[in-house]
Structure formats: C-alpha cells, structure tokens
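Cross-posted from the bioinformatics board.
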Amino acid sequence: MISGRCAACKSQRRKCPPDCIFSPYFPPNDPQRFACVHRIYGCSNVGKMLQQMPVQMRAQAVDTLYMEARWRIEDPVYGCVKLISQLHQNLGDTESELAKVKALIAFHKLQISQVNELHQPNLDASQSNIVEQFQFDYPAQNHYPWFIN
Amino acid sequence: MASSSSYNSPCAACKFLRRKCMPDCIFAPYFPPEEPQKFANVHKIFGASNVSKLLNEVLPHQREDAVNSLAYEAEARIKDPVYGCVGAISVLQRQVIRLQKELDATNAEMIRYTNTCTEIIPTHHHHHDAATRMLGNNEGPDVGGSSSSLLAQSPSSAAFYYPSPWNNDLSGDAFHHIH
C-alpha cells in the first residue's frame, strides 16, 4: 500500500520520494490546493519555480501561487489583476477626494482669516499666504490597466 | 488586436515553440511576433498548453484581456517569484488603508472648520456651497460625511496581508510594461 504520498504525487499517480519537493506544501489532506495550482500552472512549472528559490521561501511562494490560481479559476479572464485595478481605482478616487477636502479646508481658513481681518484690520500680512493653499494639485492620472477606461 | 497577418510571419508563440504557425493558431492574435517576451514570460509561468486551455475556456472577445492579464501576472511572478501579484495587492491595500485614514482625519478637520465658520459667519452655508460648487462637488455641506464610502466598494476578498519586497511599483508602472 502506498501511503503518505503528498497531494501532488497522489494526483500524478506516482511514488512520493522522501525528498519530494512538493510534499511539505501539498499535504494529502488538502487535494484541492494542488489541484488548483496544477490546473493553472502545471506540475512541472511549479516544481521548477520551487527549485529556483531558497527553501525557506517556498511555503509562502506556494501560498501565493495557490491564491492566484484560485482567483484565476474564479475569474478566467482577469484573475487577480481585476483586484489590482480596483485597488488602483480606489487609491485614485481617495486621493481626489482628499485633495478636494484639503482645498475646502483652505477655503474655510481663508474665510476665517478674512473675518478676523474685519474685526482686527492690523493682522500680520502673512495671513494672506493661506490663499496659496488654493493651489492644490489633483493627483496625476494613475496608470491603470488597459481595460480601465 | 494584433495578429500575425503576414503569410510568412509566425506568431511569437509558434516562434518560441519552433513550430509552424497555422492559420487558426489560437495564440497568433494575442502574441504578435514583435513582442516575444510576452509569450516567453507566459510560457515560463503557465506553460503553453495551460494558456491554450485557458483561452479555450473564455469567449473569443475576452481572450485579449485574458492574455494580457496572464502576461501581467507572469511578469509579476518573474519579478517576484515568491509573492507575485499578491505582493502588489498587499502594498496597494496598505496604501488604501493609509490614505483612507488620512481622508477620515481631514474630513474631521473639515467638520471642525465648518462648525467654526458657522459660528463666526452667519452666511457661512452660502460660502461653503459656493466652494463646493467651485470644486465640482455637488454634495453640498455633507462632503465630510461619507468618509468610508470608497472602502465600502473594496473587494471583500482582499482581507489578508503579505509582507512584500515588491515596493518599487507603487505607481503601477508595471501595467505599462504589458501594454
């Protein structure tokens, strides 16, 4: 009886050697993990990738490969790239909103300083530099993926 | 959509695989011969037969986007073999959270100024509305209220953290590389 094979070797129907490169990362009780990775990347590609990196990094590499494989299975067209573009979009929107609110604050500061001047006309002329706070820059257009219009 | 329309010009995939590029080659429309690196990257990470299977799973009009997203992922994985795209996602998430916190703090400051203005300037609302119209925001005095509206749109699946050395692409420059 062949027992103790990792999920990779079980899937490939082969013996699982003691130094199997897959066995630490694809336990037999989680066949889905290897199935996802195998479906997207292929067994030999994963093996090559693991061989080319230090042993201590392989667990994390397999985790991220598994995540990306799952995303790709859920969304065969965009995979995880859709999430990246959404995050870029969020960043751009938040930056724009931040710039607007900062401009409004500058406007209110100016209002307050103008009111103060009315009551105390001999205020220091450096109050006028608040007007310069109107010179806000909207963030430059981010470089979104091709499919974001 | 690029295509290997010339009779004697195999696509990048067939050139790489050293085979004849047939008229119905599934790779030809998406891997033009002048972009050999694109297919080389995709082949290294996914393999030609997996790419072919993936392309057959999607509708023809979606294949270009599918190939481009695969090329992007492949390039990310080659740049960062351990974290790939997950590294970029982690960095971006942290940026979004940081920026959202800054926006929340700025909104709170805005509310303080709004209240101050209301106290000292009886006609404040008119000025505030004028300011918001000037900035192209038609939401009026409620601009400071919905600070979490953007994050509410964030993908709910993005609830993890991965430390990543992939800190050089904060501006998303890698997107240009695939286009």
